[in-house]
Amino acid sequence: MEEVCFMTSHHRTPGSLVLLFAGPGIKPEMWHSLAATVPWTSDIADTSASQDLHGYACRIGHTEPSLWARVGSRSLCLGLCHIAALQEEYHRPGDLVVGGILPHLNTMVIRASFEEPPSNKYVGRQVAKNFQQILALEFAINEINKDPALLPNVTLGFRILEDTYFERMTYQAGLAFLSVRGQMVPNYRCSRKEELLSVIGSLNSRISLQMASLLGLFKIPQIDPSEVPQYFGLIRLLLHFHWDWIGIVAPDDDSGENFIQALIPMLDQNNICVEFIDRIECVESCSPGSSKKVIEQQPPCCYECELCPEGTISNHTDADRCVPCPEDQYPNKNKDQCFSKSINFLSCQEMLGIVLASLALLLFLITAAVLTIISKHQDTPIVKANNRELTYVLLISLLLCFLCSFLFIGRPTKVTCLLRQTAFTVILSVAISTILAKTITVVLAFMATKPGNMARELLGRQVVNSIVLACPLLQAVICAIWLGTSPPFPNLDFHSLAKEIIMECNEGSVVMFYIVLGYMAFLALVSFMVAFLARKLPDSFNEAKFITFSMLVFCSVWISFVPTYLSTKGKSMVAVEVFSILASGAGLLGCIFLPKCYIIVMRPDLNTKDHLLRNKSYRHLNS
Questions:
Q1: Virtual CA dihedral for 459, 462, 468, 474, nearest 10 degrees?
Q2: 324-358: b (≥16 Cβ within 10 Å) or e
Q3: Angstrom distance (rounded) from CA 521 to CA 554
């Protein structure tokens, strides 16, 4: 003989039905024998169509938590599951009551037989793990009641009804919350002492939505588990597999509508297209180097592909936008990758720098050769006739002018940036002031030949020296103000050139830069005008004609310099300035001194005192 275990649920009411589940091979006589040994069974109903019984039903006469019995020689443990009307399973009274629709049975609704009026009955079997939710709610209520600071003078209670996972049964639970315990009269509050605060559940979203439609009519809040975390997980799955065009199948009811309203905005935020009745064609993926441009009044997956603007890239497919490269990098031709920019400055190791440096060195050597020739023939009439001291000053200033061009070639440093413009403008101002002094000397010399003219008294050495010193000194003062207020400094320009970083000397103050250039242009213009006026004075060695032509070349170079300088960037801008320095210096050197050197070297017969005495102006100049 072996034992049979009958398990019953708590709070069983008399008159409930119990269902005995048995395996095949259980004979009818075994069940009749069992019924005879159980005093609280009233009848046995055969539910099997075969000789081997699979189950029998009996009527409970009274409540029993458990019962042990022996059936023949078979060992059978039969779970006794109850068939009961919907009832309240757990209850604790309180001033305010929290309702709960939580499962603790594994239930099955009994089909209608159409032999009697249908009743809301279900078959249930206890599931131990489902008690966790019930225990959690009971624990929370107890903790709240223990703390007097949370709800002073208020006791929370609870009512927990079974969640059958069937809508019609759970609706009945909702009506039970709205009725007095033991009755089914919704919203009838006579002699009702407890106030329903809220309802927790159901754990099934479909039932929870249906419960909300009922409880909402009576303004009773409902707390149900959120499915939003599931939506996030679903979207992460779609994004992982790059599924950006999906279809959704949802029930045509409130739950389906709520599901769509909650999910669609989340899909839109992640650029996932949803297809319902109407078919929406998606474009092909946008390749790297382009970005998506969403079409107005269309879902996010309906877009056009447009190439990235200049200076930006996209390095992956279906980029939402193009991003700029770092400032020290530039996009490649396909605009899908950034390359490092090269450094741009006028280097003495590249062809342009080598050419300009070689030209500056050549002009320096030519000037040195001219100075040597002049110094060796300094006592000849042609040298003495044109103010020998001013000639030396002019040649030395030209030497320094050609040398200062080397400050512009090579990597800019703090020292070279400070000296570049100031040295070049001051030295060139000395050269122009010397030319102006030489021209004024010639003009005053011929004016002194007239009787009673006071110009001779003005031909003293101090007047000439004052011109040579005062004009460059004023330029030096302007440069000092420039260096004291906004000095030039080395700078990296990342934006002027697309593929290169310009290493340059920032002028500090552009205004001061153009002031020093403007002052130099003023000196050149005055020198040109004075020389132009003196170009027809009769003298075999009159420099006025040559000075006029040299200043014409000088002014032309620097007038063309300004627009060219402003239209170039980087090392090209520096090269323009170096070329202007060399060209203007070469114009002064060639136009003023080449005729003298030609006479000294090639025509010494013209470099004689007799030749000078034939000129009346020279005799008056030395009388």
A1: -130
A2: ebeeebbbeeebbebeebeebbbbeeeebbeebbe
A3: 9
User: What would the two tokens of residue 177 be?
Assistant: 């919350």
Is there a contact between 555 and 467 (Cβ–Cβ < 8 Å)? no
Cβ neighbours for 374, distance < 8 A, ≥ 6 positions apart: 383, 391, 392, 395, 593, 596, 597, 600
Q: How far apart are CA 496 and CA 502, in angstroms?
A: 8
Q: What is the pLDDT, as a whole number, of residue 449?
A: 59
pLDDT tens digits, 514-544:
999 999 999 999 888 888 887 766 554 467 7
pLDDT greater than 70 at residue 469: yes
Identify the bridge partners of residue 20 per DSSP, sorted by sequence position: 56, 80
Q: What is the pLDDT of residues 288-347, one digit of tens each?
A: 999 988 777 776 667 788 999 988 999 988 888 899 999 899 999 999 999 999 999 999
Give the global pTM. Answer: 0.55
Name the architecture of domain 88-223.
3-Layer(aba) Sandwich (3.40)
**Domain at 351-621: CATH code:** 1.20.1070.10
The structure tokens listed for 592 are 């003023």
Task: Please give the C-alpha separations between residue 533 and each of 400, 444, 461, 544, in angstroms, as whole numbers.
Answer: 29, 12, 23, 8
